[in-house]
User: What shape does this take?
Amino acid sequence: MKEGEVRSSAGQVMMEIESNKPAGNGIVVGGLSPLSETLWKEKINTEFVSDVSARLTWKDLTVTVTLGNGETRKVLEGLTGYAEPGTITALMGPSGSGKSTLLDALSSRLATNAFLSGTVLLNGRKTKMSFGTAAYVTQDDTLIGTLTVRETISYSARLRLPDMMPEEDKRALVEGTIVEMGLQDCADTVIGNWHLRGISGGEKRRVSIALEILMRPRLLFLDEPTSGLDSASAFFVTQTLRGLSRDGRTVIASIHQPSSEVFELFDRLYLLSGGKTVYFGQASEAYEFFARAGFPCPSLRNPSDHFLRCMNSDFDKVKATLKGSMKARFERSDDPLEKMTTTEAIRRLTDFYRHSQYYDSAREKVDEISRVKGSVLDSGGSQASFVMQAFTLTKRSFVNMSRDFGYYWLRLAIYLVVTICIGTIYLNVGTGYNAFLSRGACASFVFGFVTFMSIGGFPSFVEDMKVFQRERVNGHYGVSAFVIGNTLSALPFLILITFTSGTICYFMVRLHPGFMHYLFFVFCLHACVTVVESLMMAIASVVPNFLMGIIVGAGIQGIFMLVSGFFRLPNDIPKPFWRYPMSYISFHYWALQGQYQNDLRGLVFDNQPPDLSMITGEFFWMKNMTGEFILENVFEIDVNRSKWWDLSVLFSMVVIYRLLFFIMIKVNEDVTPWIRGYIARSRRRRRRRRLQHKKNSNQHASVDHVNRTPSLRVYVVEAETCSST
Ligand SMILES: Nc1ncnc2c1ncn2[C@@H]1O[C@H](COP(=O)(O)OP(=O)(O)OP(=O)(O)O)[C@@H](O)[C@H]1O
Assistant: This one.
């Protein structure tokens, strides 16, 4: 088989993966499967694929975080290590030891209040690994619950693979990845959500990994890929990761408490405690390291449990709380660990490591790897065109919306029930004496409360945003493609909801007769619901917390409703702020202004209650009231403005709010981290200045103190003078 040849069936892809698995120790340094070559050849656009393996080194890496009160804290301290292609490196340590921070530092994903010093080199070069250079599998599996495993991977492939790649090759790659991750048995099962029973936790983990290895990344970071899995699933996942590394990839994973079988699969081990290196070297040599450091692993203990036992200072707290016989049992034990505190053991281990040959050889190796300037690995994320991304996202989102009962179907049901309620309450509202009040109230309820119910979709928006954020940070697609996809996919559902409920309401209440009047009413309802939808999406992009988002959304809509001109007439709304600009920003205001005109203009209402007309008879000065009269004198509406103008303002709001959604995502992505970083940096500077100031004043104080201290020389001279006199 020629190198770089594209395979066209799942079976062939599988064979290719298998055939590429090397014999012996199984390490192909810098090797690529033909499939990977195809992808990477596209990227670097050369005839012959150069060595695209990833050699990662980090030297004297320190991460300091700035806390809220301006204090700084070293989370990682002087770490040195490396990761080579064809190997899997495990980061281990007790909770809070800095494993995730190390992964974040290596993959350029540190929080904005964290500052890195030292060097991190990829193939001997400084690289900012953002948006797709390296794949990163996070701890939680943010997947779309309504899609099957195969669909999830297929959509992801379409979002990222080049448009020019034949469809059958894309399919082959998807099938190959499914086989590679051992997902064949559940390929057609849905991922699962609150109402759909789906795949197991271990399978979800494997799907998350499958999505990231789809583009054959050369460098793969995984944050606790086995957490929450039973031992068999954890073994399977780690075995798969080991298999991936044997394809010439560099795999770095943080692991919490591996079983002995899982532990044996690691090539290198990085042990961390309190942000310091306890050990870095071959995983198989860690056992000997601990024995030489004075902490041999007891014969019946799992080595990784033993290492973590030696490094977890929480055991000191546990021991301090033990009483009586339990305590005595610990003290009688032969284990050297029981004769000292864990803090002391950690200090000994870190000191021992610093002066060991492991440390020296790690530094030598880091220098050696860093000297070689390899390929610049910049995959640049997705290779699909913008149109393909927008199309795939629209399709995926549409499928999700149609399958997720909570997204629109539940809302449609509630809308129908509520509009039937409105219809029966305002049934045949007519043109009696106070019918215009009922019409006003009905419109206000429809455009106020009925649109308000759109916030019910917020949980689904939050889920969408989580998936978007994971995919975005891994470089799968851009913000514009996402906003377009979301907008287009929601459109048919919003049309369905607003047209069905609007139609029921319109004909039951018998609003102003006429097709154009009906059309205006449903268009108005549609625009309002779409605006609320965009508003809630914009909120979900900055407030990912479900409860907070609903509160914020409800608050904003409540304020808009207040200034809509129903609860207080437009001319009576206090001018500063509430009238200008709030009522003009409120979409309820435009909807009501338009609908009042749409409904009342051209109608004629009785001027007096039926009982009164019998008394006053023909003598009353005006028998009927026109809709125009009511619009001007009761609802204080500018009748010279066309209702279509109100509708066009509403539709421009739809566009503006969608743009707002786009801007909010961008702000959240670019501006917020910058502001947070700026605040953290200025807090750090202020604290440094304060400390410097304190130090200076202490120095002054000590100089003054020395100056004020009686001089011994003066004392001796004075004493001598006294004695001589
Ligand atoms: N951006 C940050 N701001 C403040 N503190 C931080 C930040 N990042 C990490 N820390 C602190 O650094 C320490 C290490 O955190 P990290 O998440 O890296 O630990 P971990 O070993 O991955 O823990 P776990 O196994 O529980 O996930 C913790 O005490 C954490 O609170």
Notes: The pocket of adenosine-5'-triphosphate is lined by residues 65, 67, 75, 93, 95-101, 111, 113-114 (CB under 6 Å). DSSP finds 27 helices and 13 strands in the chain. Residues 228 and 643 are 58 Å apart (CA to CA). The chain has two domains: 13-371, 386-671.
